[in-house]
């Protein structure tokens, strides 16, 4: 690994994302020894005028919880001492010059150690300020060390609202930074079971001949949350569930399920294959979309009374290639549903010439549960134990909690921030990938924005609109029953 001075700058340090995700992830990395206190310094930057200690106190509460190990509070205090706060605006040079001065002071105090200077700028910011902040960094805060090193930026979705706005944003940032300096985070790519997809698919002989249209009937990628847009109504209403979850998180998962084997594990080889999948997706048909909005959504004072924004959507994607022609990929996401769950369900076709007459018991299904309680299980038909020759559905179950007792599964953000420090872009979205993702959903999003497609109402705590289940059966999904 590289050595030398590492400065991590969290822009938007007093905001929600920084407190809830970025600082806790940095703390976990520190706790595990990935951030050495003789090398690293963390800077918080935001407009609010507060002191170092005020920022530290705001963060502290998010670093210690009921699951924290005894003695953690000492480590938290050590970690908080690494954080310095600089206040300034997002579009004028003064603040960024001051920030640069602080970073440089830290570098000159530690650089005598050895090696280069590394500057990582984490944008925990609303995208509207991405262009100005990128300009300011480029102008005032780039690494200038003679000993080498780098400057990288980490950006979060939403990257625009449709193809045009996203392309504009990409062009603005692309003029200032090279692609290897830009880390577009999609935190689903940092989830353990999402990262496992490549291994599962390409390191298991068993799956190779099965993973195609000859054997797979349909694929579902599902995200459910059992709470609404609490406190985020204003943000959410501008974007809706398709931009919030489907166009990024679920589409990324689809790529990993559907892509061909990459030439190697090099980030570019993997991303090349993902782009090909996205480019092979056919235009989405209106009749293969169901939108929903939960009752009570518009009661949020930050949501307009006549909002047309979907909080639920099911859309069928069709991949036009040799492997997947005719196989529906059903992407489904919803807020305020009956459970919190994210999973991939791969449903196989019926066995031809069934001598057991067991079709009613269902099909083979391979389920990869991303959360909660990571697991993979395979639904099989087996002989019902006993004297009779009858069949039943059962499961081959690999539940992570049982199989990997005592192993802590890292948080997505933790892993992804470590990747940015190490310079590994495998789990980040490349510019052409982002463009291809927007190309798929932009026509549908425009129809919704123009009021040409309307969400159906559903009860909070339900499965969503019944029409979504009807669509599922229409495209071939068969509900299977366990024993
Ligand atoms: C975010 C969305 O990207 O992902 C949120 O903006 C959503 O609306 C969250 O709640 C879900 O993430 P996770 O990791 O809890 O599934």
Could you provide a short overview of the structure?
36% of the residues lie in helices and 22% in strands. The chain has 483 residues and is an alpha/beta fold. The model has no long low-confidence stretch (mean pLDDT 93).
Features of the shown structure:
483 residues; alpha/beta; 9-stranded mixed beta sheet; 6-stranded parallel beta sheet; 15 strands; 22% strand; binds 6-O-phosphono-beta-D-glucopyranose; Glucose-6-phosphate 1-dehydrogenase 6 cytoplasmic
What is the straight-line distance between the termini? 51 Å
In helices, the fraction of residues equals 25-40%
Weakly predicted, low-confidence segments:
none
Largest sheet: 9 strands, mixed
SSE class? alpha/beta
How would you spell out the order of helices and strands? EHEHHEHEHEHEHEHHEEEEEEEHHHEH
Strand adjacency order, main sheet = 14-13-12-11-7-10-9-8-15
* Overall pLDDT level: 93
Q: Tally the helices: what do you get?
A: 13
Strand content: 15-25%
Rg is: 24 Å
Give the cofactors and ligands.
6-O-phosphono-beta-D-glucopyranose
Detailed description of the structure:
With 483 residues, the chain is of the alpha/beta class. The protein has 13 helices and 15 strands. Strand 5, helix 6 and strand 6 (182-185) form a beta-alpha-beta unit. The model has no long low-confidence stretch (mean pLDDT 93). 36% of the residues lie in helices and 22% in strands. Residues 187, 225, 244, 342 line the site of 6-O-phosphono-beta-D-glucopyranose. 6-O-phosphono-beta-D-glucopyranose binds at residues 187, 225, 244, 342.
């Amino acid at each position: 690994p590289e050595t030398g001075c590492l400065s991590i700058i969290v822009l938007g340090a007093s905001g929600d994302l920084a407190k809830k995700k970025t600082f806790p992830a940095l703390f976990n990395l520190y706790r595990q020894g990935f951030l050495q206190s003789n090398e690293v310094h963390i800077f918080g930057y935001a407009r609010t005028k507060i002191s170092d200690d005020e920022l530290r106190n705001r963060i502290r509460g998010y670093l210690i919880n009921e699951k924290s190990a005894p003695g953690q509070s000492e480590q938290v205090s050590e970690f908080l001492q690494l954080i310095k706060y600089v206040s300034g605006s997002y579009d004028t040079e003064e603040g960024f010059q001051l920030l640069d001065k602080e970073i440089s002071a830290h570098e000159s105090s530690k650089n005598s150690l050895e090696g280069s200077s590394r500057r990582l700028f984490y944008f925990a910011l609303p995208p509207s300020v991405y262009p100005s902040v990128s300009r300011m960094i480029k102008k005032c805060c780039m690494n200038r060390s003679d000993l080498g090193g780098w400057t990288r930026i980490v950006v979060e979705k939403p990257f625009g609202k449709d193809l045009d706005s996203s392309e504009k944003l990409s062009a603005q940032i692309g003029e200032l930074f090279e692609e290897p300096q830009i880390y577009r985070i999609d935190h689903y790519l940092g989830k353990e079971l999402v990262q496992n997809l490549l291994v599962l698919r390409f390191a298991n002989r068993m799956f190779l001949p099965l993973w195609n249209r000859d054997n797979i009937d349909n694929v579902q990628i599902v995200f459910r949350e059992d709470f609404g847009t609490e406190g985020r109504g204003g943000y959410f209403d501008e974007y809706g569930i398709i931009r919030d979850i489907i166009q990024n998180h679920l589409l990324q998962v689809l790529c990993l399920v559907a892509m061909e084997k990459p030439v190697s594990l090099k980030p570019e080889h993997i991303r090349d294959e993902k782009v090909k999948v996205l480019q092979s997706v056919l235009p989405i048909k209106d009749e293969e979309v169901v939108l929903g909005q939960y009752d009570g959504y518009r009661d949020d004072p930050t949501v307009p009374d006549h909002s047309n924004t979907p909080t639920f959507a099911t859309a069928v994607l069709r991949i036009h290639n040799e492997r997947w022609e005719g196989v529906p990929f059903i992407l489904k996401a919803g807020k305020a549903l009956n459970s919190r769950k994210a999973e991939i369900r791969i449903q196989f076709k019926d066995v031809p010439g069934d001598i057991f007459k067991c079709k009613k018991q269902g099909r083979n299904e391979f389920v990869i549960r991303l959360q909660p309680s990571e697991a993979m299980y395979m639904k099989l038909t087996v002989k019902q134990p006993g004297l009779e020759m009858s069949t039943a559905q059962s499961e081959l179950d690999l539940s992570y909690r049982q199989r990997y007792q005592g192993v802590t599964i890292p948080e997505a953000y933790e892993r992804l921030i470590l990747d940015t420090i190490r310079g590994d872009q495998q789990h980040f979205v490349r510019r052409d990938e982002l463009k291809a993702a927007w190309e798929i959903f932009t026509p549908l999003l425009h129809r919704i924005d123009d009021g040409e497609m309307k969400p159906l109402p559903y009860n909070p705590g339900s499965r969503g609109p019944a029409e979504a289940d009807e669509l599922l059966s229409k495209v071939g999904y068969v509900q299977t029953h366990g024993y």
